[in-house]
Specification:
The chain contains 11 helices and no strands. The chain has 268 residues and is mostly helical. The protein has one domain. The chain starts with a helix and ends with a helix. 23% of the residues are buried.
Length: 268
């Protein structure tokens, strides 16, 4: 009876943690979207007041505000971007970051509840322990959490989505039902994000080579600027990544009982 109770408690705990992880992704995505919309609105309000100021009408804007605005505007013009472009780029980058955090959290949850998988099937990752993890924490579980987090973080940061899908399968025997086309889209979004963050949105040969490795045809050519289509890219990514998170979440939730059985059968 106690065993059944323990199993039921474990099942509920894993389910609750995975659902919280998914809900956190949705919440963060909504916050980022609202921030983008609010910022666009504020830009519009400022622009309207700026035009009133130029026309000699009453406005709350000071000459200092105008000078700062003109300075920033000139900087953006040199970059070939607008305030709107910057906001959409930030929103695009944030969305993929939320997606990565979601995957990281799923690995953390699975390793936390089923730690035998760390030793049994994670042969290509070492568990790194700092001195502080063992001797400077009041509770040993704090050190355990740090190690599990590093392991989960390494999986997501060192692998692309094709390899991450394999990790779910090879480590936990969970098949994530993302199609090759969906994986290709996620991989492309990741590379788009890298170009925005590291190359001012300009497509280079590294980007094209990365896509070619997986037989993905790019709609961009070398030296194209992603920013020119950033509004469409952002809108597509928002709904697409949300759909992918739902698929991953459903696949993990439907495999909890099997995970419990597999973990129980592992002898160390």
């Amino acid at each position: 009876m106690n065993t059944v109770k323990v199993q039921n408690t474990l099942f509920k705990s894993v389910k609750s943690d995975l659902n919280s992880c998914t809900n956190k992704y949705y919440k963060n995505g909504l916050i980022s979207l609202k921030y983008c919309i609010l910022s666009l609105y504020m830009c519009k309000v400022f622009e309207d007041n700026y035009l009133k100021k130029v026309a000699g009408l009453n406005t709350n804007l000071t000459d200092g505000d105008i000078n700062k605005f003109k300075k920033r505007e000139k900087e953006l013009i040199k970059m070939g971007k607008s305030f709107t472009d910057i906001l959409y780029e930030k929103n695009y980058v944030d969305m993929y970051q939320h997606f990565e955090e979601f995957m990281l959290n799923t690995f953390y949850i699975l390793y936390k509840h089923f730690p035998k998988f760390i030793v049994n099937r994670t042969k290509d990752y070492k568990i790194y322990l700092d001195y502080a993890d063992l001797f400077e924490v009041k509770d040993v579980t704090i050190g355990q959490d740090r190690c599990i987090y590093r392991l989960a973080n390494n999986i997501v940061q060192r692998n692309n989505i094709f390899d991450i899908k394999k990790k779910y399968s090879n480590v936990f025997s969970i098949n994530i039902n993302l199609t090759y086309k969906q994986l290709s889209e996620i991989y492309t979004i990741s590379n788009n994000r890298n170009m925005i963050v590291h190359n001012n949105g300009k497509i280079n040969n590294i980007y094209l080579s990365n896509l070619k490795k997986y037989n993905i045809t790019s709609k961009y050519s070398e030296n194209d600027i992603i920013t020119k289509n950033i509004e469409d890219e952002r809108e597509f990514s928002f709904y697409f990544l949300k759909k992918c998170v739902k698929i991953i979440s459903n696949d993990l939730l439907s495999n909890i009982k099997q995970l419990m059985k597999n973990h129980e059968s592992i002898t160390l």
